[in-house]
Amino acid sequence: MPEPTPVDIRVSGLRKTFRVSEREAGLRASIRSLVRRSYRDVEAVAGVSFDIEAGDVVGFLGPNGAGKTTTLKMLSGLLHPTGGEISVLGHVPARREHAYLRRMTLVMGNRNQLQWDIPALDSFEMNRAIYRIPEADFRQIRDEIVELLEIGDLVRKPVRTLSLGERMKAEIAA
Questions:
Q1: Range of the domain at 80
Q2: Could you read off the pLDDT of 35-52 as tens digits, one per residue?
Q3: Is the same domain home to 63 and 116?
C-alpha cells in the first residue's frame, strides 16, 4: 500500500455567515433605522471542503460573490469561520499564532504591500523591519525570490513606474 501524501491545507465543511443590516430607502427609513434596525444573514461560504497536498498548484475560480476572497481570508487567518475546520501547515489560522503568521503571505489584487513612490527593495526592507526578520535571513530569502521571479532590475525602480504584471511579481516578493 502506498504511503499517504502529507496534506498541507485541509478544509472541511467551511462556512462563513455575515450579519448585514437592512433598511429601506429615504429619509424616514434612515431615521427609523437609528432606533430599530433589521438584519439578515448572508452566507458567503457554504460547506466548502478540500485538501491541498505539498507541491500542488491550485486555481480558485468562481463567479463574483461565490466566496473566493472570503475563503482565502479565512485560510490566512484574517477572518474567523462561522463553522467547519481549517488546518494550514498544521496550524489553525484563526488562532493567528506567531509561527503561522511568519509563514503566511496573501497577495490580493486590491491590496498593496509596496509603497508607490519608492523602489520595491525599500518596501521589502520596511517589511523586514516591521516583522523583525534577521537581516542575513532576509537577504538570503529576498535574493532567492528576486531571482526566482526574475525581477532583479525591477525592484530598483519606483513601484509607480512598473506595469501591473511587474507590480504583481514585486507584491508576491514582498
A1: 1-102
A2: 777 888 989 999 999 999
A3: no
